[in-house]
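Reopening this ticket.

The earlier resolution said the output was attached, but the attachment link was broken on my side. Pasting everything inline this time so it's all in one place.
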Amino acid sequence: MKGVFIAFDQAHKDAVINTLNRLNCRGFSFIEQMQGRGSKTGEPHYGTHA
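Inline output:
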């Protein structure tokens, strides 16, 4: 079994799913909304595109 993690902007969702389909990658999971914050500096951007 192999695993691949693909992180991308939500604007590219359709293109990523189409590519997975074209490459016959049938099994995958999609996390609709990911939230977090940086490790040391900066403001958290919970629920935004940043």
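Reporter confirms the inline version is readable. The mean pLDDT is 83. The longest helix spans residues 13-22.
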